[in-house]
Amino acid sequence: MAAVVVAAAATTFTLTGGASADPAAASVAFKAEHTDRCISSYTAGQLAWRNTLPVPPPEPVTTVKVTGEVALRNTTPCAPPDGAVAVAVFTAYSGRTVVDTERRSTTGATKFEFVLTVPLVPTPTPVPIDRVTVQVCHAPITPIPEPGPFTCGDISSYPI
Q1: Omega into 128 within 30° of 0, i.e. cis?
Q2: Residue 61 CA to its chain's centroid (Å)
Q3: Does residue 2 register a pLDDT over 50?
Q4: What Å distances lie between residue 144 and 2, 10, 73, 112, CA to CA?
Q5: CA angle 134-35-97, nearest 5°?
Q6: pLDDT in tens, 40-72
Q7: What's the pLDDT at 56?
Q8: b/e string for 73-92 if b means 16 or more Cβ within 10 A?
Q9: Peptide bond before 58: cis, by omega within 30 degrees of 0?
Q10: In degrees to the nearest 10, what's the CA dihedral of 31, 37, 39, 41?
Q11: What pTM was estimated for this model as a whole?
């Protein structure tokens, strides 16, 4: 049977511009949720973007530091299936092109920190990251199969 992707839960997100210690960096809070039958999960945290290349203004965003947590929780009276996994998927885009993607998963609650980056290819103009999407999915087993029988919540998009 083909993998099923279901937009089963409303996804919420909050955009909050903020300053950081690095004046060339900016950040937004992110949050995505997914509820499917007996299990519910969420991811929440911060996206901090900056330019890491020596180019004149306007400087393109070339990295996005992602910090946060992904958690699987049982908020219903039924028992979640054994081995259920919450998977947070983070995708960086330049226009319609995916430039980087990362997944973080848990059977409980896990904190994470990683960096989405543009490919390191020699070009006259660096490929900028212009948005990051965040989505939470459920897989019924561990280890998570590729591409996996997932159900997923709505995609939250964060323009840069």
Answers
A1: no
A2: 17
A3: no
A4: 15, 24, 18, 18
A5: 20
A6: 899 999 999 887 666 655 677 889 999 999 999
A7: 56
A8: eeeeeeebeeebbbbbbbbb
A9: yes
A10: -10
A11: 0.76
